[in-house]
Amino acid sequence: MGYTISQVAEKTSLSVYTIRYYDKEGLLPFVDREKGKRVFHDQDIEWIDLICCLKNTGMPIKDIRTFIQYCTDNDAVVDKGLEILIQHKHNVEQQIRDTQRSLETIEYKINHLPQMYKEKFSTHH
Amino acid sequence: MGYTISQVAEKTSLSVYTIRYYDKEGLLPFVDREKGKRVFHDQDIEWIDLICCLKNTGMPIKDIRTFIQYCTDNDAVVDKGLEILIQHKHNVEQQIRDTQRSLETIEYKINHLPQMYKEKFSTHH
DNA sequence: ATTTGACATAGAGTTCACTCTAGGCTTTAT
DNA sequence: ATAAAGCCTAGAGTGAACTCTATGTCAAAT
Lengths: 125, 125
Prior knowledge:
Two copies of one chain form a homodimer.
Chain A: H1 5-12, H2 16-24, E1 32-34, E2 37-39, H3 42-56, H4 61-73, H5 75-121
Helix pairs in contact in A: 4-5
The structure holds a DNA duplex.
């Protein structure tokens, strides 16, 4: 019943340091304490998974904090949290499109590298 | 014939500071000088575009430097540059898949946020 | 002739997201 | 009873990628 910080570190592949850092930064206001020690439950892991997703898709820590604050404040504000999540979803979709465009450019450059090389660096010109 | 640093800044939407920084970091060894001032040509812009693509897809500066060094050394090593580019292409493809998975998680969480909220924060439990 | 503007360098400062150290407490094993 | 392991906090340190400041040069405009 309840995980220690190092068990959560294993489960989430975050370091213990990072989890404490996230807590310090206000990302984990929902974590319980027992005699000063953090005790994590399954729902907490779900929240941390979401936090990791947001981080991995480029949301800065302070925006994640804002999101979590909206979610923990009260029912009225959870909608604002939802709004942030939906907006971020659109950002990530755009991000995928941008990365795909970069990928196309990289593929193009792979095919044209010898030529780019010649034009610029060949002793021949 | 040839662009100034601020013209290149406009074209690439990098700042003048960033371009100088990249040069300092050895990313732009191909840029000519005239009386101490950098003079950029169209091929240089193509190289800078590639550099931006690599940066935007998460390649660290020092790896970009290595790549550029391979490309500028001599014909024998340009193949090594090509190899790096192809490897990076695979990384980016993986990165897109990862981001798509994160996106799916975010979509799932959007649908389950009210429930996650209730389970953890509702006064009712 | 002087002022303005764009360029240059060296190096300091900033921000972000960790990552680690020092020092302390508490439970468990020997 | 002492040592080891695992938790805690506060705060210092790190590395990446800029971003800016100070200072200086030089060419063109007034």
